[in-house]
Amino acid sequence: MREALTAAATRRVTRPAPLRQAVYDALTELIVNGSLKPGQHLVEAELAEHLGVSRQPVREALQRLQTDGWVDLRPAQGAFVHSPTEEEAAQLLGVRAVLETYSAQLAARQAKPEDVERLWKLHQEGVDALAASDVERLVAANTALHAFITSVAGNAVLAELIAGVGQKVRWYYTPIARPRGKEAWNEHAQLIRAIAKGDSERAGEVMRKHTERTTGFYRKQLAAGTGQD
Amino acid sequence: MREALTAAATRRVTRPAPLRQAVYDALTELIVNGSLKPGQHLVEAELAEHLGVSRQPVREALQRLQTDGWVDLRPAQGAFVHSPTEEEAAQLLGVRAVLETYSAQLAARQAKPEDVERLWKLHQEGVDALAASDVERLVAANTALHAFITSVAGNAVLAELIAGVGQKVRWYYTPIARPRGKEAWNEHAQLIRAIAKGDSERAGEVMRKHTERTTGFYRKQLAAGTGQD
DNA sequence: ATACAGGCTTCTGTATACAGAACTCAATCC
DNA sequence: GGATTGAGTTCTGTATACAGAAGCCTGTAT
């Protein structure tokens, strides 16, 4: 009976779910979707009342938001939504390129046949979204594909860094840039083929070129000042 | 008079210095130097009393320690000093190699003559420490050299990631590994020459080989189980 | 009219208080 | 004798209370 129970109840029935986590998620969401604008002063008491909790969990969430780079915590003044400079955005793109390249190299070494199969499925989803001109689905498919490659790479430290950098890149560029189109997904296909062959070097090279093109694509739109509307 | 004042008082006379920061520094120090052992349960009240503050700043410091990977915060149980696995250590080394390589490439592109001069000074310090067989000075010189290269690279995002990863690598390997000797500093010299010439590609390649050799060096000592005594 | 000074308000930083969950250990029942 | 269940204890998670600093506004003096 004991074995049966452990097999069935691998996870606790209820997860306590600390409030600070919920607050953290809520605030990142508000920052990413633009409800909280860069530079805005976040007053603890206001947030607390708005979210229906006390100041304590709000403070803890703000602490973490600072170390993750979403807000700046000025001593004795409080939290301000971080204002990314163009320079910082460029630096983020550079770092992301390096990390994604490494991720692709590792993935090519580690990928099992079922992983490759899954990659092609994700790729197809992206192509479909592209055909349907569904921007939201397209962005989601792109994120999912890159995230899966990272998970195949099997380096948790790397995965965490990529996740953090990637989210900030999206935060900064989503309001001003449309996603790349057909050529990006052709590059994805090349990448998957290299991974399938286990060709680490080529996978890295393809990913490097891919992220560099994406970087250039973003920069061009930023310079042109063309929003997505 | 006003300009004179603004020029003189660019910085506030007294910085409030939040307690949480002091607590954070104290705890990282205790973790890195081994006073707090991996897996150990950190009780908020104990730490608070020991440091002479209330639980609140301690909690805030623990939150940040978690996001920085020094402790694990189990819900409803509290903080435990993180126990790095061998796998995680290997992943850290891999990521560090990639980041340092990128750092060297950027540094080669950005370095000004006075930067190169400074690099040679730091190199000399390392060579001196090596000649004096002063392990502590040697480690410090190595850290200083790499840190300065990163600062020359001029990418703040990158610098922050390298700092975080590097500190954890040192935490994990310092107790079990001696620093590398003469050959490491010869490699440093090659690296500085490449940076001085502005040869980004070569600088990256030298750094990649350098970090890979360091990685192998650590792994060997780990496998042999030979401590530093 | 303008510049400075003083008080007032607001918000952060820190401390304390209380409720609930998890672990411990002992007593009880099979 | 061994497993189990229950009370007791400890610690976290959350809320509230209080002190001090920073900014703002007003009043006054030049």
Topology:
The structure is a homodimer of 229-residue chains.
Chain A: H1 2-8, H2 19-32, E1 41-42, H3 44-51, H4 55-67, E2 71-74, E3 78-81, H5 86-110, H6 113-131, H7 135-153, H8 156-173, H9 182-197, H10 200-224
Antiparallel strand pairs in A: 1-3, 2-3
Chain A binds a DNA duplex (30 and 30 nucleotides) through α4.
Tally of contiguous helical segments of chain A: 10
Give the overall silhouette of chain A: elongated
Overall mean pLDDT of chain A: 88
Strand order in the sheet with the most strands of chain A: 1-3-2
Work out the helicity level of chain A: over 70%
How large, in whole angstroms, is the Cα Rg of chain A?
A: 20 Å
Description:
2 copies of one chain form a homodimer. In chain A, strand 2 and strand 3 form a beta hairpin. Chain A has helices spanning 2-8, 19-32, 44-51, 55-67, 86-110, 113-131, 135-153, 156-173, 182-197, 200-224; strands at residues 41-42, 71-74, 78-81. Chain A is mainly alpha-helical and 229 residues long. In chain A, helix 5 runs antiparallel to helix 10 and helix 9 packs antiparallel against helix 10 (200-224). The interface between A and B is medium-sized, with 29 and 29 residues. Chain A binds a DNA duplex (30 and 30 nucleotides) through helix 4.
List the main descriptive attributes of the protein structure presented here.
229 residues; mainly alpha; homodimer; 72% helix; disordered N terminus; DNA-binding
